[in-house]
Amino acid sequence: MKPGCLLLFALTAMPIAVQGGVYKHVDEHGNVTYSNVPSGDAKRIDLPSLIVVPSVDSGDIDDRMVKRRESLKLEEQRGKLQDKIAEEEKRLNEVKDVYKDGTPDRLGSERNYQRYLDRVERLKEEIKVREKNLSILREELNRLPDKIQIR
Known about the structure:
mainly alpha; three-stranded antiparallel β-sheet; 8% strand
């Protein structure tokens, strides 16, 4: 074999061998130096292999985040509407309990019969308003989409 070929082979193989490791050197002051070139009393360190994570299309992530925010907003709206409906139902039932199908108990301050009739009429109107409010709230709840699909 020609000496030139042997020298060329040795020169091309040497960088592979040198790059193959990491060396740690601690000097007399305690300073630590890491290098890929061995020097003096440097010790070779075996490092775990690197894990390569493929890149992710950020556009897809942005779309997911937008849909997730929309979904959370929708859940919040649904929760608020359900709370309002429950509150309105509670108030409606309280008024209906007082109304007693048009014959509420007469209060002590209602010695005048017209005052009693006025209160009965106000209770009747309040029931109508609360039932209308419930109807509107339920329609609004039904108009909300069920769920947003997140891939």
